[in-house]
Amino acid sequence: MDPRALALSTAVAVAEDPARVGDFVDVHSMDDGVSDYRFVCLMPGYEGWQWSVTLFHDADRGVWTVDESSLVPTDKAILSPEWTPWKDRLRPSDLSVTDVMGTLADDPRLEPGVRQDGPDVDRDRIEAASVGSTPEVSGHSVEVSDGGSIPGSSATVSADEGDGIVSVPVGTASAADQESDDGMDDHASLTTEDDAEDDLAEAIDRFSLARNRVLSPQGRSQTADRWYHGPHGPKSMSTRIASGNPCSTCGFLVHIQGDLGLQFGVCANMWSPDDGRVVSLDHGCGEHSQIEPPESPHLWVQSKPAYDDIRIDVIDQRPREESAQVEMLEQMEDGDAQEPSTEESASQESLPQESASDDGRE
């Protein structure tokens, strides 16, 4: 028995049409008498694929048997993307209001909260959750309301000092403070332990760090990156038509606490499409508080009335439309006015008789 002919007949039987099986390509010998025969696949939509028929050769008996047959892709085949688990390919827009995803116990976006009465209080975490650090936003620079910038993971705020502008990194000492360090002790050494505890308690209470779980640095960075590149960031269409009026200078911007407040705020303009949403400080919507409303168009100008006493308007008079009872009463009144009175009729009747009697006597 010819193994190649057996493999070809098997491929035609699987394809259910001889026109779907092309020329012989190659045979791959494997261990233990197993060989793989390949044929070109001519099925529509399967360009670059091959028919694979695996045969087993029993050398003692001299018999070839079919193990399996299938379609296998080559380097030129068009393949679908690699399978991704549903929890990784799911997007927030795929969920409805009744769907609940839940949060894993080891979610990297969260970390345990801070307890002031605990044995080990991580002060670095408290400082990182406050305004002293800025989440990274893919290397972009964000202009803040007071003229500073936020270049990715570091923030600076500009302030007037004398005749010039000095840029002071947030959470660090200014140049003047660094120069004064030579003549004075460190500020932390002058702070009493009670004051430090009070500051710690104030930071925990202000930023609600006593919750069971709070945002981790990774969670804050992911949130900032998602908000900044979303529809309420600087690259939106509304920002392009905002005429250089960013949200950082708008009176309707509500600032938020924490390090995210260095880059974002909440819009409170009821006429803005971003009302109630988190917007970046360099975002714009066109409803800035400094924009004056447009002037109302003068479609109608009221003027004094004009009287035309030269032209005469001829108006056609039409018969009035009244009820039949009114017409009947008017006709009856007209008939009574035309009939003579009783005395006049009697005198008129007596005149001819008297004249007749006079004619008879004569």
UniProtKB/TrEMBL annotation:
InterPro entries the record matches: DUF3027
What are the boundaries of the region Disordered? 102-167, 213-237, 317-362
Source organism of this protein record? Bifidobacterium minimum
Enumerate the transmembrane spans.
none
Taxonomic placement: Bacteria, Bacillati, Actinomycetota, Actinomycetes, Bifidobacteriales
Q: Which Pfam families match?
A: DUF3027
Protein name as annotated: DUF3027 domain-containing protein
Where is there biased composition of kind Basic and acidic residues?
A: 106-127
Give the compositionally biased regions (Polar residues): 339-355
